[in-house]
Inverse folding.
């Protein structure tokens, strides 16, 4: 219940180097402003609350994160606007100050994503790898296992932004 829109909007996210959203995402390619991350839609008492962290909310965040991870389906997608590029969640987080962003290109399976993220953070935080290298190693690691060998399980995530 603590993963609320208000918690994101009132936390000084500038103080965090790594920000991870493990949730569902809505990417509207026709109307990018309607794209959002879905957070808790109910409080601890069961009362409904606005759980949509919309694109305009994201644009207004003040981030200083080295890496923001959007561990949700199709978060790297958006609307290709001529002269502007891809308008969607990724642009919002980059504009808000994320140095790099890990996002997905398709509907990613939960179990494989959890395993990929565990390895990604281990390579990055324990082994000291750069985010781009940690993601690559995590993907190669999953690809080397029989149950996750198909690219569907490990290739859906890409790192955008500062790869150094």
């Amino acid at each position: 219940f603590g993963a609320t829109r208000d918690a994101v909007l009132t936390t000084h996210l500038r103080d965090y180097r790594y920000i991870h959203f493990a949730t569902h995402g809505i990417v509207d390619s026709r109307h990018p402003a309607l794209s959002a991350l879905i957070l808790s839609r109910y409080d601890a008492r069961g009362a409904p609350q606005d759980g949509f962290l919309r694109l305009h909310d994201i644009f207004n965040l003040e981030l200083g994160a080295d890496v923001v991870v959007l561990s949700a389906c199709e978060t790297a997608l958006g609307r290709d606007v001529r002269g502007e590029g891809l308008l969607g969640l990724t642009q919002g987080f980059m504009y808000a100050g994320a140095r790099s962003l890990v996002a997905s290109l398709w509907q990613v399976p939960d179990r494989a994503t959890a395993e990929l993220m565990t390895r990604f953070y281990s390579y990055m935080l324990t082994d000291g790898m750069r985010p781009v290298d940690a993601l690559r190693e995590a993907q190669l690691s999953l690809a080397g296992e029989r149950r996750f060998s198909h690219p569907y399980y490990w290739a859906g995530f890409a790192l955008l932004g500062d790869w150094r």
In short: Residues 98 and 112 are 25 Å apart (CA to CA). The longest strand covers residues 18-22. The beta strands are 18-22, 24-26, 36-38, 52-54, 67-71, 79-81, 85-87, 100-104, 157-161. The chain has six helices and nine strands.
